[in-house]
Amino acid sequence: MNSELIVIISSVFSLVAISAFLFLFFGHYLKIAGENKQLKYKIEEIDEIVDRRVKERTKQLENMRDSISDFAVQRFELAQELELKNVRILEQKDFTDKQSEKLRVAYEEIKRLESFRQQMVQMMIHDLKNPLNLILNLTDTESIPANLRNIIRQISYEMLDLILNLLEVQKFKEMKMQVENENIQLSSLIKNLTDKLNLLFVNSSIELKTNVPPAYWITTDRHIVNRILTNLLSNAIKYTPSGGLIQISVSQKDNEILVEIEDNGNGISEDKINSMFDMYNQGANSSLLYNNSTGIGLAYCKLAVEALGGKIGIKSEIGKGTLVGFTLNQGSYVAENKNTKDIPDKIENKLPGSELTEKDIKLIRPYIADLKKRSIFEVTEILSVTKKIDCYKNTRIIKWKELVEETLYSANEKKFRELIDID
Asked: Does one domain contain both 187 and 310?
């Protein structure tokens, strides 16, 4: 009985032990199996996510590929277009280069022709001075009737003025005009000039009135101011009808002297005033019987006044005449009880050409000998001689040569002889 009980108890303990072992073994296995199952589910979820993302990324890459392909095609097409344009640009550049070369050749030819034209104009102008001076000298004879003599002299003076204007305008443009300032009594200068032009006023039946106080003095170049006044008065005479009036008045403002020339002619329209000082601008009053204005005179006046440091302007109104005014630098007043002749600012004690050394004179002696044989009116011949002196790169000789040529422009026989009488 006891042994059976022991067997039963042993069997029970064995079953319990076996059951516990099996529970422990299979429970752990089942736990691992559950975890594996869960892990499998997670892996499947991850695979789905990865697959979905791979598909999305693949789609994006395919879109990028398509975009890149389109861009590559566009770039290729653009490259082809640029290549075509480059070819055209090269063709145009080649054409432009050829045209530029043609223009350069044409420009050089124009420059050569312009230089030739200027030389011819200068030569003709200089050559015209000779017969004009001869005509003026011939009018001094009594064999020509007075009326005819006056007409010839008037026309000759006008032509001579035109020639001098052309010469001096060119000199101003080339910066070769030398300004020689001196202290001048303006009333004396204007009186001397109007006395010379008196014949023009008489022949034109025009009255001249002057209001120039003797107290006004100017520091300026006498020759240039005379040319300015001559041009302005000649213009006023041309555009003032017979029986008209021309007035010269002078006033002072600050350190400047204002000279005004006013006529009661037909006047100038407002739209033409601004162009009156342009080169070769024709006078506005073309209905006059005698009107040979070229516009050179006023162009010269503007260049000359500005070279003297002044300003010039015009006021005019149709039917009421014209007023031209210009300013000059104020000079030093000289009292009436002193010598009232024009007093230069400085007196040159040396004769022209005295700056030349003995070596300089020796170099130009052959030219001096040739010049001494010439009359000052043989302008072309004298210029052909002085042109040869350019071979000497000597500032003293060049200056002397320019002084000699200057006497030709002003027809200053005395100074011409002084300059060549140095040998």
From this structure: yes
381: which 2 tokens? 């011949």
Asked if residue 213 belongs to a domain, the reply is yes
Residue 324 belongs to domain with CATH number: 3.30.565.10
One domain, residues 310 and 408: no
Residuewise pLDDT in 10s, the chain (423 residues)? 567 777 777 777 777 777 766 666 666 666 777 777 788 888 888 888 888 888 888 888 888 888 888 888 888 888 888 888 888 888 888 888 888 888 888 888 887 777 766 666 666 666 666 666 667 666 666 677 777 777 776 677 667 767 776 666 666 666 656 678 889 999 999 998 888 788 778 878 899 999 999 999 999 988 889 889 988 998 888 888 889 999 999 999 888 999 999 999 888 888 888 788 876 555 444 443 334 455 677 888 888 899 889 999 999 988 889 999 999 999 888 765 444 444 443 333 344 455 788 888 888 888 888 888 887 666 667 877 888 886 767 888 888 888 887 776 555 677 888 888 876
Domain that holds residue 407: 358-420
How many domains would you assign to the chain? 2
| Residue 248 tokens, joined | 């010269």
Same domain, 202 and 305: yes
- CA distances to 63, 246, 392, 399 from 357, rounded to whole Å, are 96, 52, 14, 13
250 forms beta bridges with 259
What is the reported pTM? 0.51
Distance CA 163, CA 236 (A): 19
Q: How far, in Å, CA of 392 to CA of 222, rounded?
A: 32
Does one domain contain both 243 and 382?
A: no
66 within a domain of the structure (yes/no): no
